[in-house]
């Protein structure tokens, strides 16, 4: 193994491969900052260029973009409440609240450091655990996915700051939005109202940018002239960094997020998004300061941001060992490998060790580059909050519209984002929590498809689930989560009353 | 575009010399690819386009117009100006299947047909420790009890429906969003077998996690020369899907002919064959008229099967 890694660094230490790693990481960060222009689009654009490179160089470049995005997606989430990526949606909640309290630097700093730790942990996991974890991926069939998604949905019990009824209502809306488009089994269209743009469903970009970004714009317009607090410009380069308490509170969330994200990221289908929500819910449940969640708890940034980064690393395991892409981005990477005549799969380690280890080595280096790159810029990004509000609002509007437009290249998505902006504004004013909506929207389609596949396999017999221990385990977890969420919900409120 | 038209309208005579000099096509041709960049359809079309450029002497640019299960690209081409500058990729899915399933803005009569250039290859495989060692055993078992198979969709599922109708087997179709997911479900023994293409199946076949029972196409897989086709194993069926190009109807016939010649020649280039093989496809230079006939025949044949399986729109 050490030999392999050394060989990998040997492969990496050419001018070409080092520059590709750097370019990939930088591009990835930029792409992450710009909502809408997701990693899949960027990699697709760069694919023809990568054909001119050797396969190792091509994958180093494309992989750099992929994990770089997970770093960059945080910045707009924290500063403007615009999720750069779907997996950064949850960061908007507490990251932006921190920025309003003058702790934007701490939020961005902890996100970058958490991402680095989680990313490195993820690569270690890929290196050490690939073969056994590949078996885990295979063990997941329709029953297991359906139960996992149900467990994910039960997390809404923890988002229920606004009350269980409201959270459940939002989850139903999310499930409905997720069901727009083609029926996953028969392929017939549902709720599309003859609009071609809806055939492939409601896109995540108009949904997330509208609900979070544009709705915030309306709040800004109503809130008078109150500016967000900004810390005094720091005397040192790293002066914006988290303070001692924030560090202490973030350590465990980063560790838990890293492990959680890695395992969830392994599984095909929405890994990183689920991982970030899962981590948020876990931290909210375990924290000593539940009353701060939603109002700027650093755990709510540290955990999810770590989880989505180790998730991106985890997704490499099925790709490299089984040749199975677990999301749209790794599917493109698979395509890139095939174009170069490389067949990913169990044989890759024997046939192309230089490629396998070169990519692993580049991921270590890439994560380090991203850390070095991101930390000094934290101060720079935080200054963006000093921009007068009328300019800031214009920038948010511009970013949201361009982001929405660039994902699908159609007007309808922009209109949809505007509608979601108004809906999001009204819901938030009405005290509704948008987390359950997005969570249900992301998990719903997989839940539906898996459940219906499972029923096709069992010929409609729901009791067959007893033959699937993993699925049963998830069902028990969901029941436990729902119960504990409902039973223990009152406690924090009491503490809060006593404290304040 | 509009300015050019205006020029043509107002000062047509001024344009004449240049028109006479430059034979058609005068500018770049756009091919709308129905699937995302990096996928097999995209890469293979890019390979053909690169060859066609050399023949037509104008750039042939690729625009990925994904969505609508592969119908967005042909739908856009159908409504574009019929000048031969906008084409789209279309295969079985867009032409023979989806018109039965979705309410589309086009019919098979909305197009000018150009040549086909690639054939998808299909195979039937079982998990390594499955009791079925031959196609005959699989079919016998399928007559006794219900077996399930994973596939990403049509036309593989239709092939199996046809077996069900002819041989009284009970093969239950479990759809997966992509070939990789379908193959994974078979490796994990969540289904009894899988019908998919080589790119997703090869890693599992080569590492011994899956066993290939038959090539479901008309030819054997070059990686598994010992495994016969369905026909060779006494089952008169081949799952066939040809990928080709279409443009809007009413493109002047001399332009259709010129494009057809160019793309048919491009499809025969050795570089194209190389790329196709890497993505588990086979070169299929099919003349425009044959490509159109294939799609129309398939459209007619698939209708009853899709309706019987409850997959057609009502």
Q: What does it look like?
A:
- The complex is a heterodimer of chains A (500) and B (314).
- With 500 residues, chain A is mainly alpha-helical.
- Chain A has helices at residues 2-12, 15-33, 39-50, 55-80, 89-100, 104-139, 142-154, 156-159, 164-178, 204-222, 244-266, 271-286, 299-314, 316-322, 328-339, 348-351, 353-383, 389-408, 411-429, 435-457, 469-487, 490-499, and strands spanning 181-182, 189-190.
- Chain A has one domain (2-499).
- In chain A, helix 5 (89-100) runs antiparallel to helix 13 (299-314).
- Chain B is an alpha/beta fold and 314 residues long.
- Chain B has two domains: 2-120 and 241-308, Bordetella uptake gene, domain 1 (D-Maltodextrin-Binding Protein, domain 2, 3-Layer(aba) Sandwich); 123-233, D-Maltodextrin-Binding Protein, domain 2 (3-Layer(aba) Sandwich).
- Chain B is built from twelve helices and eleven strands.
- In chain B, the strands form two sheets. In chain B, strands 2-1-3-10-4-11 form a six-stranded mixed beta sheet, with helices on both faces. Chain B has a five-stranded mixed beta sheet with strand order 7-6-8-5-9, sandwiched between helices.
- The model of chain B is unreliable at 1-21 (pLDDT under 50).
- The chains are: A mainly alpha (500), B alpha/beta (314).
- At the A-B interface, helix 3, helix 6, helix 15 and helix 20 of A face helix 3, strand 7, helix 8 and helix 9 of B.
- Chain A: InterPro entries: DUF112_TM.
- Chain A: This is Tripartite tricarboxylate transporter permease.
């Amino acid at each position: 193994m050490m030999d392999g890694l050394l060989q990998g660094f040997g492969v990496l230490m050419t001018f070409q491969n080092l520059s590709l790693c750097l370019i990939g990481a930088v591009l990835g960060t930029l792409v992450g900052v710009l909502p809408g222009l997701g990693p899949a689009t960027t990699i697709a654009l760069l694919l023809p260029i990568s054909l001119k490179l050797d396969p190792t160089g091509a994958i180093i470049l494309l992989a750099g973009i992929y994990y770089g995005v997970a770093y960059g997606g945080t910045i707009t989430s924290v500063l403007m409440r615009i999720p750069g990526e779907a997996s950064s949606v949850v960061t908007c909640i507490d990251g932006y609240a921190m920025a309003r309290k003058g702790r934007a630097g701490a939020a961005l700093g902890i996100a970058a450091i958490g991402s680095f730790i989680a990313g490195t942990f993820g690569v270690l996991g890929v290196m050490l655990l690939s073969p056994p974890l590949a078996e885990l991926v295979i063990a997941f069939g329709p029953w297991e996915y359906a139960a996992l998604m149900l467990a994910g949905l039960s997390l809404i019990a923890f988002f229920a700051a606004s009350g269980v009824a409201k959270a459940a209502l939002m989850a139903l809306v999310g499930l409905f939005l997720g069901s727009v488009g083609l029926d996953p089994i028969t392929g017939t269209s549902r709720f599309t109202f003859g609009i071609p743009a809806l055939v492939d469903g409601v896109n995540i970009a108009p949904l997330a940018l509208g609900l979070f970004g544009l709705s915030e714009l309306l709040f800004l317009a109503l809130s008078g002239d109150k500016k967000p607090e900004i810390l005094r410009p720091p005397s040192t380069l790293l002066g914006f960094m988290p303070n001692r308490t924030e560090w202490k509170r973030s350590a465990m969330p980063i560790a838990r997020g890293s492990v959680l994200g890695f395992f969830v990221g392994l599984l095909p289908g929405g890994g990183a998004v689920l991982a970030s929500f899962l981590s948020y819910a876990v931290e909210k449940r375990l924290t000593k300061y539940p009353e701060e969640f939603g109002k700027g708890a650093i755990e709510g940034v540290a955990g999810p941001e770590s989880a989505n980064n180790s998730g991106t690393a985890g997704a490499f395991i099925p790709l490299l060992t089984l040749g199975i892409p677990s999301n749209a981005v790794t599917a493109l990477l698979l395509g890139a490998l095939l174009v170069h005549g490389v067949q990913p799969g169990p044989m890759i380690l024997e046939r192309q060790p230089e490629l396998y280890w070169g990519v692993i080595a580049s991921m270590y280096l890439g994560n380090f580059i991203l850390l070095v790159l991101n930390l000094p810029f934290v101060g720079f990004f935080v200054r963006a909050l000093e921009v007068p509000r009328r300019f800031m609002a214009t920038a948010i509007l511009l970013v949201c519209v361009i982001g929405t437009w660039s994902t699908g290249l159609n007007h309808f998505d922009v209109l949809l984002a505007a509608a979601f902006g108004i809906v999001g504004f009204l819901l938030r004013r009405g005290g509704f929590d948008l987390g359950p909506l997005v969570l249900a929207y992301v998990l719903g389609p997989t839940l539906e498809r898996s459940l219906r596949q499972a029923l096709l396999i069992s010929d409609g017999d729901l009791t067959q689930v007893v033959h699937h221990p993993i699925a049963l385990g998830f069902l028990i977890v969901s029941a436990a989560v729902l119960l504990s969420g409902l039973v223990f919900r009152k406690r924090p409120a009491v503490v809060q009353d006593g404290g304040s | 575009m509009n300015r050019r038209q205006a020029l043509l309208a107002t000062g047509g005579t001024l344009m004449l010399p240049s028109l006479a000099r430059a034979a058609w096509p005068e500018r770049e041709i756009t091919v709308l690819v129905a699937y995302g960049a990096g996928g097999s359809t995209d890469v293979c079309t890019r390979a053909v386009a690169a060859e066609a450029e050399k023949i037509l002497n104008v750039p042939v640019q690729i625009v990925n117009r994904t969505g609508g299960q592969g119908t967005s690209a042909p739908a856009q081409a159908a409504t574009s100006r019929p000048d031969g500058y906008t084409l789209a990729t279309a295969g079985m899915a867009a032409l023979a299947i989806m018109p039965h399933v979705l309410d589309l803005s086009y019919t098979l009569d909305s197009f000018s047909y150009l040549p086909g250039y690639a054939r998808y290859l299909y195979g039937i495989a079982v998990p390594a420790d499955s009791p079925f060692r031959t196609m005959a055993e699989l079919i016998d078992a399928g007559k006794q009890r219900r077996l399930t198979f994973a596939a990403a969709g049509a036309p593989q599922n239709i092939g199996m429906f046809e077996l069900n109708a002819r041989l009284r087997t009970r093969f239950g179709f479990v759809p997966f969003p992509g070939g990789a997911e379908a193959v994974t479900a078979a490796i994990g023994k969540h289904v009894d077998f899988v019908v998919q293409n080589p790119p997703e199946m090869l890693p599992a076949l080569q590492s011994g996690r899956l066993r290939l029972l038959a090539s479901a196409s008309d030819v054997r897989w070059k990686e598994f020369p010992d495994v016969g086709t369905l026909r060779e194993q006494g089952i008169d069926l081949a799952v066939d899907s040809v990928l080709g190009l279409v443009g809007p109807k009413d493109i002047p016939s001399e332009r259709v002919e010129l494009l057809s010649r160019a793309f048919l020649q491009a499809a025969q280039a050795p570089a194209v064959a190389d790329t196709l093989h890497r993505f588990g496809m086979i070169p299929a230079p099919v003349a425009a008229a044959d490509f159109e006939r294939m799609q129309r025949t398939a459209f007619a044949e698939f209708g009853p099967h899709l309706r019987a399986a409850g997959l057609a729109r009502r």
